[in-house]
Design brief:
The complex is a heterodimer of chains A (646) and B (85). Chain A is α+β, with helices and mostly antiparallel strands and 646 residues long. Chain A is built from 28 helices and 17 strands. In chain B, 31% of the residues are buried. The chains are: A alpha+beta (646), B mainly alpha (85). Chains A and B meet through helix 16, helix 17, helix 27 and helix 28 of A and helix 2 and helix 3 of B.
Chain lengths: 646, 85
């Protein structure tokens, strides 16, 4: 895994890239590739690279050029089917100087142009400079595992794996939080590509290729998410096919590395299955890694241990306390480069440090299973609400929600209509494309009450939800309801948050590469071919996956009720152990300087959270609000304010 | 605006960060506007009990009593009237 960076002079009048600018960019990306770095300036384009050596450590240096320098490549990621593609290219007459996947990417582009990206089964951010055609090509993998940002400034385009490298290249690039990025975050929990948290900085969309040349700039999709549901077979056939596809995907990710590979174990089904398949793929010593929590409410240690013992892995744990989360949080935000509403990335930053200390560079995780095989409560909730919508006056149908959320049955708020009012909102429009997400987005959007008047004015009439809905494919309404819900979930939370703020960024902060068998191109294709009922059978989530896991995962794990991964949120930042920066950033003057939130509202929020330190009870709203305010304040302080002062 | 409404509005403004509380219509749904969520309802209930010295039964925590400022004011007034006991 690596860092990509570069500068392209769009016009002849713009200054040509200089080596020292590229060096400044690679320095900002050092954590993504501490093993080596390099840069090449070729006419109007300069490409740079920081390298974490995983395949062919001796010869895979980058940027890599074809003979004569016609094509120059800087590439972050892995193309797992590079061995097969190499054979195809050799048959076409291409000759290779290295064993690296980098050279396969380069020669695949030489052979097939942009069609090459459709053949890649992997996770990548690619920058190619075609010197003969004076064309810069930027591409990102199908689901957005690897990041790639751009910024147009004074006739140049800056691009990099992380925004901090763009800002490092040129101190005159304006640095400001984007009000529309704030609006998106306070709706979807994340910014959605191409938008970022920073005005003027864009992210290349997953599954897209962006081309800059004399004709200007164009961005087109080379892949799109479809749900043909054309699998013809029984549920048992499907379970067998899923097991085989996942086994192949895991083996590819284990074997296509010249360094040891480990795995994360959360204690849930997905990571347990991946670890079991990985264990089967290697006779060598195999390490697993888990986050544990001092607070028993969040801890899954018993289940993690169970799987590690059963698989006979060398198991490593980091035990996280609320004070650890607060201490790590500034680093989390500096790496995530966006406001976040949950602290959940923080323990994963601490976990990746543990991986690195154990001498492991690559880990497999279960990320993506919930999106591809319908694991989230959100999908089950939408199914119940659609069922309810068919008989809106039914008293019994909404009670199915109690099967999803057992706390409702015990809560005084539940038995009497309050929860019905909450979950019943929107059931008059069951065909709406955002039906499943309406409850979450409505709850999150309520945070906008805390915005400053100036920020509200800057957002103006922008409606994040309407903009997202307008950008969805026109035929999405014809998808099965579950497929529709999966599509929206993948386009928002998976790409924008889980793979990024909680994934790539927290791993790369410690120079560790994540690999995700559930996001394998063949696994995704198979999952999307299955009928919805194989994934969500009545209200049984990931049904086909559970069947595929029967002989691989301990029965206790299969029987467990799904536990969402959560970490202590706002209460990490209050009480005696709270670090001093928390009070400083929540101070009314500091909040006013940040410009995003209303200082008085934040004071009230902070007071409420501090009072809750004694009781330990705080609403979901207040938890999200305090984490959102603190992360935004840190982002402003670290990326906007400090740069201005220095 | 009577004393109950003033107290209720002040609580909603402070506890749920509603800056322009005067602009909030008395018949606006607090749930639909996202001002009060399921935990917020419990906070609101606890406040009403302590501020107005009333006891709220589980089966009284319903939208009909708590979803609008009008409903809350009427509910508190009913609970405080001698007949309610």
């Amino acid at each position: 895994m690596c860092g990509v960076a570069g500068i392209y002079a769009e016009t002849a009048a713009a200054a040509a890239p200089r080596r020292e600018e590229l060096d400044a960019m690679t320095r900002a990306l050092h954590h993504r590739g501490p093993d080596a770095d390099g840069a090449i300036v070729s006419g109007r384009c300069g490409l740079a690279h920081t390298r974490l050596s995983i395949i062919d450590p001796r010869l895979g240096a980058q940027p890599m050029s074809t003979e004569g320098g016609g094509l120059v490549l800087s590439y972050n990621g892995e193309v797992f089917n590079y061995v097969e593609l190499r054979e195809e290219l050799v048959a076409l007459g291409h000759r290779f100087a290295t064993q690296s996947d980098t050279e396969v990417v380069l020669r695949a582009y030489a052979a097939w142009g942009e069609d090459a990206f459709t053949r890649f089964n992997g996770q990548f951010a690619i920058a190619i400079w075609d010197a003969f055609r004076e064309r810069l090509v930027l591409a990102r993998d199908r689901l957005g595992v690897r990041p790639l940002y751009t910024c147009a400034h004074l006739g140049r385009v800056y691009f990099a794996s992380e925004i901090k490298a763009i800002f490092a290249a040129d101190r005159t690039i304006p640095r400001a939080l984007d009000p529309r990025g704030i609006d998106e975050t306070l709706t979807f929990w994340t910014v959605v590509a191409p938008r970022t948290a920073f005005a003027g900085v864009e992210e290349v969309r997953p599954g897209h290729v962006r081309v800059y040349d004399a004709k200007g700039v164009r961005e087109t999709a080379f892949w799109s998410l479809r749900y043909p549901h054309d699998f013809e077979g029984t549920i048992e056939d499907a379970a067998e096919a899923v097991g085989e596809a996942l086994s192949r995907a895991t083996s590819l990710r284990m074997l296509r590395a010249d360094v040891p590979v480990g795995a994360y174990l959360s204690g849930g089904l997905d990571s347990s299955l991946v670890a079991a398949l990985a264990r089967r793929a290697t006779p060598a010593r195999f390490s697993t890694f888990s986050v544990r929590f001092e607070d028993g409410e969040y801890d899954e240690g018993r289940f993690q241990r169970l799987v590690a013992d059963e698989l006979g892995t060398e198991h490593h744990e980091v035990v996280v306390r609320a004070s650890d989360i607060a201490r790590a949080f500034p680093d989390v935000v500096a790496h995530a480069e966006r406001p976040i509403l949950r602290t959940a990335p923080a323990p994963l930053l601490l976990l990746s440090r543990l991986v690195r200390e154990a001498g492991i560079k690559v880990v497999l995780t279960g990320e993506g299973a919930d999106e591809m095989f319908a694991g989230y409560d959100l999908f089950r909730e939408a199914k119940v609400r659609r069922f309810w919508a068919r008989q809106p006056d039914s008293k019994l149908r909404p009670r199915l929600l109690e099967r999803l959320y057992p706390y409702l049955a015990r809560s005084p708020v539940a038995n009497n209509g309050m929860s019905h009012a909450f979950f019943g909102s929107g059931i008059d429009a069951p065909d709406a494309l955002d039906f499943a997400h309406d409850t979450r987005w409505r709850t999150t959007s309520a945070l906008k009450r805390l915005l400053s008047r100036a920020m509200k004015d800057a957002i103006g009439g922008h409606d994040a939800r309407a903009e997202l809905l307008a950008a969805l494919p026109p035929d999405l309404a014809s998808f099965a309801p579950l497929a529709r819900d999966q599509y929206v979930e993948i386009k928002t939370l998976l790409s924008g948050y889980l793979l990024s703020a909680q994934g790539d960024r927290m791993l790369m902060a410690s120079s560790v590469e994540g690999r995700f068998p559930f996001l394998d191109a063949d696994v995704v294709k198979l999952a999307n071919a299955l009928p919805p009922s194989y994934k969500l059978r009545v209200l049984d989530e990931k049904h086909v996956l559970k069947r595929a896991s029967r002989d691989l995962v301990p029965p206790e794990i299969l029987r467990r009720k799904k536990q969402p991964y959560r970490a202590p949120d706002a209460l990490s930042f209050v009480g005696a152990s709270a670090p001093p920066w928390v009070r400083e950033l929540l101070d009314e003057r500091a909040v006013a300087r940040g410009g995003v939130f209303d200082p008085r509202a934040v004071s009230a929020l902070a007071g409420k959270c501090r009072a809750a330190a004694a009781t330990g009870k705080l609403s979901n709203f207040d938890n999200m609000a305090l984490v959102g305010v603190l992360s935004t304040q840190l982002l402003h302080h670290g990326f906007v304010e400090q740069r201005r002062e220095s | 605006m009577n004393a109950i409404e003033t107290t209720v509005r002040s609580f909603i403004a402070d506890n749920f960060y509603v800056r322009d509380i005067d602009a909030l219509s008395s018949d606006a749904s607090l749930l639909r506007r996202g001002i009060v969520d399921s935990t917020g309802v419990l906070e609101l209930t606890a406040f009403l009990e302590s501020a107005f010295a009333i006891k709220v039964a589980d089966d009284e925590i319903v939208p009909e009593n708590l979803d609008t400022i009008d409903a809350i004011v009427a509910f508190v007034a009913r609970k405080r009237s001698p007949k309610a006991a």
